[in-house]
Specification:
The chain is of the alpha+beta class and about 150 residues long. It is about 35% helix and about 30% strand. The chain has one domain (about 1-150): Gcn5-related N-acetyltransferase (GNAT) (Aminopeptidase).
Length: about 150
């Protein structure tokens, strides 16, 4: 079900991420800007961030990117904590527990590297999702202006 992100599934990751970004506040962002951001994340996989694709019945249904926060990271908010940078599930696969399963998988992978605490930054509809995964909203705001949730 979970596969590491590789050169072979990079195009599938890009397609899922574009679908994910086009749903939200990036609906009007030029596609080349979105592809550039996705490519910059992809270039960090295996170095500073890790990730996985979720395959079900031969089709990719979701993805997740995570990392152990480090003060030298571009995304640093709480050094030493693990953070899920991006998670996406195809709309037709939502509300079936797949997102929570992906979160558990990412947390397990981070625990294997010694991470014991986690955080995410999220807003709007995603807040209820993160709370259902055991994360609690804090008063702290991420650099991107979103509230931070910890577990």
């Amino acid at each position: 079900m979970f596969e590491p992100i590789t050169k072979e599934n990079h195009a599938s990751l890009e397609a899922l991420m574009i679908e994910y970004y086009r749903e939200g506040e990036d609906a009007d962002t030029p596609i080349e800007t979105i592809k550039g951001f996705i490519d910059s994340l992809y270039q960090m996989i295996g170095r500073s961030i890790d990730g996985a694709m979720v395959k079900h019945d031969g089709q990719y249904e979701g993805f997740c990117l995570w990392m152990k926060d480090d003060s030298q990271s571009n995304f640093s908010e709480i050094p030493g904590y693990g953070t899920i940078l991006e998670i996406g599930v195809r709309p037709q696969s939502r509300k079936k527990g797949l997102g929570r399963e992906i979160v558990r998988y990412a947390e397990t992978q981070m625990r294997e590297t010694g991470v014991e605490s986690f955080y995410v930054s999220a807003y709007g509809p995603a807040e209820a999702f993160w709370e259902s995964c055991g994360y609690q909203k804090t008063e702290r705001m991420a650099e991107n202006g979103l509230p931070i949730f910890v577990k």
